[in-house]
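Priority: low. Protein: NAD(P)-dependent dehydrogenase (Short-subunit alcohol dehydrogenase family). Input follows.
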Amino acid sequence: MSGLLLENKNAVVYGGGGAIGGAIARVFVREGAHVFVAGRTRARLDAVADDIAATGGTVETAQVDVLDEAAVEKHADDVAAAAGGIDVAVNAVSVMHDQGTMLADLSLEEFMRPIDGFLRTLFITSKAVARHMGGERPGVILTLSEPGSKLAVGGILGHAVSAAGKEAFSRVLAAELAPRNVRVIGIRPHAVVDGPAAGSYTGELFERIAAGAGQSVQELLENGMAQGTLLKRLPTLSEIAETAAFLASDRAGSMTGTIANLSGGALVD
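Result:
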C-alpha cells in the first residue's frame, strides 16, 4: 500500500478558493492527488495555487460559476479528458445566507436562499462528475453539511433545512451510484474558528449575531459555539482536510452513504 493516501488520483475541489476547499486542496496535493480547483473568484483560487506552489506542489485552477450547469459540465468534461477521468470530487461551495432571524421576520427569499443555493450546486457538480467516475477505478464524491441539520435551535430555519437536504442528497446518491463503484460520503464539521475561516465566510455569516452579543466573531465561536460541544472546541481546517483525504482514499473503501461527524460532539449520533 502506498504511503500517500491519494497517489495517482484525479480530484476536483469545487469552492477550492474558500477556507475549507483550499485546505482540502492542499492536503490532497500533499497526498499525491492531481488536483483541480474550481470557484468563482480568481484571486482566491490563485492564492491557494500560490500556497501549494510554495510547498513544491502544483494545482490547476479554473474560474467556474458552480450555478452555471453548462459551465460546470464543460469543466468536468475538460478535466476528465485531460486527466483520464475523475476519481474524487469535493463540493466545498459556500452560499451566504441568514442566521439569527426568527420565522416572523424571515422572508421567503432568505429562507430559500441556502436551500436553493446549496442544493443546486450540489446537484450540478455531482451530476457533472459522476459520469466520469466509477467502473474499474473507484470514485468518491464528498459533500459538506453542518450540525444545523439536527440541531433544534431557533433562527436557523433555512440553514437547517439546507443542511438536512445536503445529507439526504448524499445518502440517496450513494445508493444510486454504489452499483457503479462510486462512494458518496458527507462531512459534517461545526463552524471553523482557525485560519482564514473566521475572517471570510464564517466571519460574514456570524458578524451580525456577534455584534448583537457585543462580541467579535472569534469570541462568539470560541466562547459560545465551542462550549456547546463535548470537546469544548471547534474543528480545525486541518482536521477537516485530513478527514476528507482519508475518506477519499481507498483506505475508506467500505464507507458510503454515511455522514462523518466532525462537530466535536455538538451532535453525538
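Residues 87 and 137 are 7 Å apart (CA to CA). Residues 193-234 form one domain.
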